[in-house]
């Protein structure tokens, strides 16, 4: 099977492994007869830059024509059966003129606008959209365009959601975000890894909310302080202890299958702090990601660190605090984003642990409902009780 990406993704690991397959690399490789001419002209342009000169319009036109001819030749001679490109690129001349697909797959289709989706859809007879409309949406910076419907993806108009997670993990997001229509894969329950003694309400209810009064502070990334990014050292340390307890239970239950543990958080500063702790303590963790980065991923176990915290003495009398939009934005920030919440609590297949300040989170309607859901099922504990029980 022949595959060609028209652009190479910039993530270092992917780029290193697959860059040679990208079209812009192939037209400059030995398999393209025009490669030497292209490289010669590009070297000439580099010399112009060093000499503070500009190439002539004729030279620019000549290079563009060379590249276009080389791309056409490589695409036609390669006989490629699979082509990777962005939705916008699907409307370019090199795709429209040279590629006639019969089948189209758009991944993360809920994250692109409807006009973007329509660009590639016109090329193929059979179209498959993959995504989740209740998770991250298209990024629309113009408020009025978003209010008038541009933020609604084509996927959202047709969506029915399926999830490869345990029923107990899916129940709350199904009721809260999907009108009870979230369909769980029964094979997950059959493969489920029971951890006797780890979960507050027993092995058949693999969810837990660990309540902790941490101390949040403005985040530091690359020695710069960012007020919009937060971190919480107390919560990070408790998260590390939960990781150790979880790995211990996996070993005690004689589970030999490789099980991936991920730590998620809404904030880059907390992610950086957790990465430092994981390295310092040599913790067995597969991924430390922000919630946004985790979109499209799944892990056997997820520990979600919510970060934001206020001393409980200041929250003791909720009536004394006016939960207006400004106050909530200041103290909860992105934690109030329903789509971020949905992504964060639906990445786990076999078990989910949420770590946070319950009293503060209750100021948000969605978190208040989640906490009530966990409390009714006996799945909410003080973090010290959770750890004490698991260390016995």
Number of domains: 2
Provide the CATH top-level class of the largest domain.
Alpha Beta
CATH topology title of the largest domain: Rossmann fold
CATH superfamily of the largest domain: P-loop containing nucleotide triphosphate hydrolases
* Gyration radius from CA atoms, angstroms: 25 Å
Sheet of most strands: 6 strands, parallel
**How are strands sequenced across the largest beta sheet?**
11-10-12-13-7-14
| Average of pLDDT | 85
Number of alpha- plus pi-helical segments:
18
Residue share in helix? 40-55%
Q: Which secondary-structure class do the elements indicate?
A: alpha/beta
User: Unreliable stretches, pLDDT < 50, 5 or more residues?
Assistant: none
Distance between the termini: 54 Å
Task: Return the CATH architecture of the largest domain.
Answer: 3-Layer(aba) Sandwich
In percent terms, what proportion of residues is strand? 15-25%
Provide the descriptors you would attach to this structure in a database record.
single chain, 392 residues, alpha/beta, Rossmann fold, 2 domains, six-stranded parallel sheet, two-stranded parallel ribbon, elongated
Give a written overview of the molecule.
Helix content is 43%, strand content 17%. It has 392 residues and is of the alpha/beta class. It has two domains: 3-156, 3-Layer(aba) Sandwich (Rossmann fold); 162-391, Rossmann fold (3-Layer(aba) Sandwich). The model has no long low-confidence stretch (mean pLDDT 85).
């Amino acid at each position: 099977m022949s595959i060609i990406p028209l652009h190479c993704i910039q993530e270092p690991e992917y780029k290193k492994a697959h860059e040679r397959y990208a079209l812009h690399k192939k037209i400059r490789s030995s398999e393209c007869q025009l490669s030497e001419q292209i490289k010669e002209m590009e070297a000439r342009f580099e010399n112009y830059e060093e000499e503070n000169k500009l190439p002539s319009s004729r030279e620019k036109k000549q290079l563009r024509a060379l590249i276009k001819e080389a791309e056409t030749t490589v695409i036609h001679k390669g006989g490629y059966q699979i082509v990777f490109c962005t939705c916008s690129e699907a409307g370019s001349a090199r795709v429209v003129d040279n590629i006639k697909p019969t089948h189209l797959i758009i991944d993360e289709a809920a994250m692109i606008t409807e006009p973007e989706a329509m660009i590639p859809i016109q090329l193929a007879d059979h179209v498959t959209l993959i995504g989740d409309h209740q998770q991250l949406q298209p990024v629309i910076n113009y408020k009025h365009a978003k209010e008038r419907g541009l933020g609604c993806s084509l996927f959202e108009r047709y969506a029915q959601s399926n999830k490869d997670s345990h029923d107990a993990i899916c129940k709350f997001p199904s009721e809260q975000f999907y009108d009870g229509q979230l369909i769980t894969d029964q094979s997950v329950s059959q493969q489920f890894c029971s951890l006797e003694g780890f979960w507050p309400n027993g092995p058949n209810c693999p969810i837990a909310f660990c309540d902790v009064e941490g101390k949040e502070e403005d985040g530091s990334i690359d020695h710069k302080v960012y007020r919009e990014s937060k971190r919480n050292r107390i919560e990070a340390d408790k998260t590390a202890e939960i990781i150790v307890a979880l790995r211990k239970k996996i070993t005690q239950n004689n589970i030999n299958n490789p099980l991936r543990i991920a730590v998620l958080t809404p904030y880059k500063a907390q992610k950086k702090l957790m990465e430092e702790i994981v390295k310092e303590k040599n913790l067995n963790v597969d991924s430390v990601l922000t919630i946004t980065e985790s979109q499209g991923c799944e892990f056997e176990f997820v520990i979600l660190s919510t970060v934001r915290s206020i001393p409980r003495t200041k929250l003791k009398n909720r009536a004394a605090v006016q939960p207006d939009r400004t106050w909530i934005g200041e103290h909860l920030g992105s934690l109030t984003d329903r789509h971020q919440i949905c992504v964060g609590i639906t990445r786990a297949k076999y078990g989910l642990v949420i770590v946070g300040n319950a009293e503060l989170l209750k100021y948000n309607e969605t978190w208040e409902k989640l906490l009530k859901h966990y409390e009714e099922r006996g799945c909410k504990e003080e973090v010290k009780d959770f750890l004490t029980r698991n260390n016995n």
